[in-house]
Design brief:
single chain; 414 residues; alpha/beta; QueA-like; 2 domains; 10-stranded mixed β-sheet; 6-stranded antiparallel β-sheet; 27% strand; globular; queuosine biosynthesis; S-adenosylmethionine:tRNA ribosyltransferase-isomerase activity
């Protein structure tokens, strides 16, 4: 075993996942999926609908309110030629998600282009109808950035101006994970979206939340379980494999998050009361733990002024001064950071890599699906349960659990 995260071999987090165990489609009923429960080294299972009875009264559940956009667009070429696929990754101009998706004339995105060599020169155009209005969408290729491009979208409508979000909703398709091995279907527009999704921006769903239903949410409330939300827009990098021998050679993907000062205050009250915090999904957990390191930075005097989006680096969990900060002191520091800078919301980007060497600071438990071998998401699971991740996954395989985005659930306690 390595002595630090950078020397940790990804080979340690490999396991055999039979192809037939990958859930190609969601369960018939959202809350009818299985749920594995890990607590104090013991493993059991039931169904997800029983979650409200598994959580102690006073637990604070934290979900990710992000909404998946129709990020895949297909631009036709001459008759008989395959269309050019454009996969929208991140907004460039305006860089703010809400402003970009609300723009009414032109935007710029970082994109992947399928069939780029067949796109010889000049702009591409797509004719469509949105809310009964004829619309023409144009894409113009710009600067190349490694394997991505800057792409400028502009559009004209015959009636009232449309937002780019409306254009995407009408012209694009839901970007299903590549490992599902199929194209999106009409049902995916609803099923690859949580029932509490509100803020558009993700190109992948926060899949741990897919099992929740209004009935489950109501039963949680009846049982005294509280609910709060953060926003972290899930990027395509969540599927990026670790292709280096050790984690030190892996560059973690970067994702945008936003939290309100009222959320920070609610989190502080939870910590002061000594009651459990449970993250719904790895994305919410990544946001939570990033907030700890931001608050710790203020508490030790490293971060004072916020001028634009904040940044959380990949290796902050290796900084002994930050790691040693008391969680409540860090959250108090975050409150002070926001008040000092007159912020009601805090936004930024996180590259935080969570590993078994990074003790979780703000979360006591995690609700999550079952993840790919050799993935950073599996590393995050090991940050909670240690080496028992392998026992958990062996149990899931032996008991016919369904894996990955449309698969079954687990409730893991630290």
């Amino acid at each position: 075993m390595a002595n630090n995260a950078r020397d940790l071999s990804i080979d340690v987090f490999d396991y055999s996942l039979p192809d037939e165990r990958i859930a190609r489609y969601p369960a018939k009923e959202r809350a009818g999926a299985k749920q594995l429960v890990y607590r104090n080294g013991e493993i059991s299972h039931g169904v997800f609908s029983e979650l409200p009875d598994r959580l102690p009264a006073g637990t604070l559940l934290i979900g990710n309110r992000t909404r998946v956009i129709h990020a895949r667009l297909f631009f036709p070429l001459a008759e008989g030629k395959r269309p050019i696929e454009v996969f929208c990754l991140d907004p460039l101009l305006p860089v703010d998600y809400a402003q970009n998706l609300g723009a009414r004339t032109q935007v710029q995105w970082k994109v992947l282009i399928g069939g780029n060599r067949r796109w010889k020169r000049g702009p591409l155009s797509l004719e469509l109808e949105v809310s009964g209005q004829k619309t023409s969408l144009t894409a113009e290729r710009g600067e190349r950035m490694d394997n991505t491009f800057a792409l400028t979208f502009s559009w004209e409508t015959e009636g009232a101006p449309l937002t780019f979000g409306e254009i995407l909703a009408a012209a694009g398709t839901i970007p299903l994970p590549p490992y599902l091995g199929r194209e999106s279907e009409p049902d995916d527009s609803a099923r690859y979206q949580t029932v509490f999704a509100k803020t558009e921006g993700s190109v992948a769903a926060p899949t741990a939340g897919l099992h929740f239903t209004p009935e489950v949410m109501n039963n949680l409330q009846k049982n005294g379980v509280d609910w709060e939300e953060v926003t972290l827009h899930v990027g395509a990098g969540t599927f990026k494999p670790v292709d280096a021998d050790t984690l030190g050679g892996h560059t973690m993907h970067r994702e945008f998050f936003t939290v309100s000062i009222s959320f920070i205050e609610r989190l502080r009250n939870q910590l002061k009361a000594g009651k459990p915090v449970v993250s719904v999904g790895t994305t919410s957990l990544r946001c939570l733990e990033s907030l700890f390191y931001l608050g710790a930075g203020f508490a030790v005097g490293e971060l004072m002024v916020v001028d634009g989006p904040v940044e959380v680096g990949q290796w902050v969990a290796e900084d002994p001064q930050l790691v040693g900060t008391d969680p409540l002191a860090a959250v108090n520091g975050l409150m002070e950071l926001m008040k000092t800078n007159s912020l009601t919301e805090l936004s930024g980007y996180t590259q935080l890599l969570l590993t078994p060497f990074a003790e979780l600071k703000l979360a006591d438990g995690l609700i999550t699906n079952f993840h790919q071998p050799r993935s950073t998401l599996l590393l995050l699971v090991a940050a909670i349960v240690g080496d028992d991740w392998r026992r958990i996954y062996d149990y899931a395989l032996e008991h016919d659990f369904r894996f990955l985005s449309y698969g079954d659930s687990s409730l893991l306690w630290k």
